[in-house]
Design goal:
The complex is a heterodimer of chains A (404) and B (65).
Chain A: E1 2-3, E2 9-10, H1 28-35, E3 40-43, E4 49-53, H2 56-63, E5 68-69, H3 97-105, H4 111-134, E6 139-140, H5 141-146, H6 148-158, H7 165-176, H8 182-205, H9 211-220, H10 227-257, H11 260-268, H12 272-286, E7 294-297, E8 301-303, E9 306-308, E10 313-316, H13 318-322, H14 356-373, E11 378-379, E12 401-403
Parallel strand pairs in A: 4-10
Antiparallel strand pairs in A: 1-2, 3-4, 5-7, 6-12, 7-10, 8-9, 11-12
Chain B: E1 2-5, H1 15-19, E2 24-26, E3 33-35, H2 45-54, E4 60-63
Antiparallel strand pairs in B: 1-4, 2-3
Classes of the chains: A alpha+beta (404), B alpha+beta (65).
Organism (chain B): Streptomyces phyllanthi
Function (chain B): Ferredoxins are iron-sulfur proteins that transfer electrons in a wide variety of metabolic reactions.
Keywords (chain B): 3Fe-4S, Electron transport, Iron, Iron-sulfur, Metal-binding, Transport
Chain lengths: 404, 65
């Protein structure tokens, strides 16, 4: 907490922007926050005060505490917690309602299902690089590779025609930008909602081999799930599937270009375990979900020695937790040999990321494929000219101009 | 080592299958964990302990003998 020139107390922003001089590092404030017990009183871009939970152990405790509700219908929940008709997606519900609906989606994200998708993902990655390298460089890696790859994959998995990807990418940008007016954000959410409503209705009549068709046939038509409930959750998966992996691919590429020795190890290894652990370390080191993991206290409680009153909002500071020296030593170093087990990049508790195995497969394919096919890959602009997504719910790069 | 899976708590993250594929699998219909071996041999203990430690729902309980 600091004091302004006029003597008022000013709460620190949440999230704190990463330092412009070292945009892959955490804000130095986070190091101070994890060094002491207690939660930090902070303020979101829209002015809402929230308690930031920063320490690794405190985040795990908070995400396992049933008195901290994820219910998007709670009037004290920051941001829009529900779809346009007032229905929340399953990530914005509490158990047992959350678990009942989540289990309708999990069959498409099992380890086995995702393993079976790997050859398809590999082909998409190769095709995108063929297209990119058929032209003269430089190219924007975000637009040519990092974004279209997960976009193609999630569209295929859900059964959304990829021809509509521009529509989704544009609306996803607006939904996930902090500080966008509520009207603008709700406009985008409504547009996506009504598009998906039509699509799901079509899948009820003409099913194909995809997640939305299975939901339509097995859950909606049997009366287990309302069409609106299916659509608001599918929309959450579509947004998450576009943005998180896309930003991990681009930001990981930058991190590797800045650590050529580590880049060479990932490029040259034939051991999938080395690649897998490198991906886990990138997930931990970069922790791109730097905001938006909110809970609201349903009763007074104490966490990390701080008293939280019923109705107050709490925000998980996943980057700080993954950089907590009590969790892992020398956390600010990008280290391919680190024991990365138990990192918080996918959250923790009953809401832990439903798409995590898909994200792992995409990253384990996308990064080595890029490095092996383009061994001369380098930045096409000075690193200082890159612009970072401090104003987005998911951190990353707006563009990454590269040559090869 | 005796392993107990608290199935209603499972959130189908698949982390146990990654950590100990010889001891855990997932149901095809909803990804919920299946315990393949309640009394895994010594060579599997490290993976099972890891699975129990990283399970996001704390749904894997171990009784060490």
């Amino acid at each position: 907490m600091t004091v302004s020139a006029t003597g008022e107390t000013v709460l620190p922003p949440f999230p704190v922007p990463r330092p412009a001089s070292c945009p892959l590092q955490m804000a130095p404030e986070y190091g101070e926050w994890v060094a002491q017990e207690g939660l930090e009183r902070t303020v979101l871009a829209d002015g809402t005060p929230v308690w930031a939970v920063n320490r690794y152990a405190d985040i795990k405790e908070a995400l396992a505490d049933e008195r901290l509700s994820a219910d998007g219908r709670n009037p004290n929940m920051p941001g829009p917690g529900t779809g346009p008709d007032g229905t929340p997606s399953f990530p914005r519900m509490d158990d047992p309602e959350h678990n009942r609906i989540r289990r309708m989606f999990t069959k498409d994200f099992t380890v086995k299902r995702i393993e079976a998708m790997r050859p398809g993902i590999q082909k998409m990655a190769d095709d995108l690089l063929d297209t990119m390298t058929a032209k003269e460089g430089p190219a924007d890696l975000v637009q040519e590779y990092a974004l279209p790859l997960p976009s193609l994959v999630i569209s295929l998995l859900l059964g959304v025609p990829y021809d509509d990807h521009e529509f989704f990418q544009n609306h996803t940008m607006l939904v996930l930008r902090s500080g966008v007016s509520k009207e603008e954000m709700m406009g985008s959410r409504r547009a996506m909602f009504s598009y998906l409503l039509d699509l799901v209705e079509r899948k009820e009549r003409e099913p194909a081999d995809d997640l939305l068709s299975r939901l339509a046939q097995e859950q909606i038509l049997t009366g287990q799930l309302r069409r609106e409930e299916a659509v608001v959750s599918a929309s959450a998966l579509l947004v998450a599937g576009h943005e998180t992996t896309a930003n991990m691919i681009a930001l990981s590429t930058l991190a590797l270009l800045q650590h050529p020795d580590l880049l060479a190890r990932i490029r040259d290894t034939d051991d999938p375990k080395v690649v897998a652990n490198a991906v886990e370390e990138l997930l931990r080191y970069l922790t791109i979900v730097h905001s938006n993991v909110f809970r609201v206290a349903t009763e007074d409680l104490t966490l990390s020695g701080t008293r939280i009153k019923a109705g107050e909002a709490v925000s998980m500071n996943l980057p700080a937790g993954n950089w907590d020296p009590a969790y892992t030593t020398d956390p600010g170093t990008f280290d391919l040999d680190r024991d990365t087990r138990g990192h918080l990049a996918f959250g923790y508790g009953t809401h832990q990321c439903v798409g995590q195995q898909l994200a792992r497969a995409e990253l384990q394919i996308a990064l080595p494929t890029l490095l092996r096919r383009l061994p001369e890959l380098s930045l096409a602009v000075p690193a200082e000219e890159l612009t970072f997504r401090n104003d987005m719910i998911v951190y990353g790069l707006y563009s990454l101009p590269v040559t090869w | 080592m005796h392993v107990v899976l608290d199935e209603p708590k499972c959130v189908a993250s698949g982390q146990c299958v990654m950590a100990a594929p010889d001891v855990f699998d997932q149901r095809d219909e909803d990804g919920i964990a299946i315990l393949l071996n309640e009394n895994p041999g010594d060579e599997l203990h490290a993976g099972v302990r890891e699975a129990a430690a990283i399970c996001p729902a704390a749904a894997i309980l171990l009784a060490e003998k």
